[in-house]
Write the structure tokens for this entry.
Amino acid sequence: MFSPDFEITTWLELGFVVALYAVGILHVIHALMHVRTSQGTIAWVVSLLALPFIALPLYWL
């Protein structure tokens, strides 16, 4: 039915996505503690939770 490579690849991709969201949540905590304005904090929290793929690299620029 499915080849073993398909299952391993799917689990690796899922693990990568879960890990990226976990790192995003850790960065939310960092943003809550260190961003200067309330508007900036809200913007970073929303972006890190919604789109960690894009927001994580931009957060450290």
Notes: Residues 16-59 form one domain. The chain has a mean pLDDT of 86. DSSP finds three helices and no strands in the chain. The CA atoms of residues 34 and 40 lie 10 Å apart.
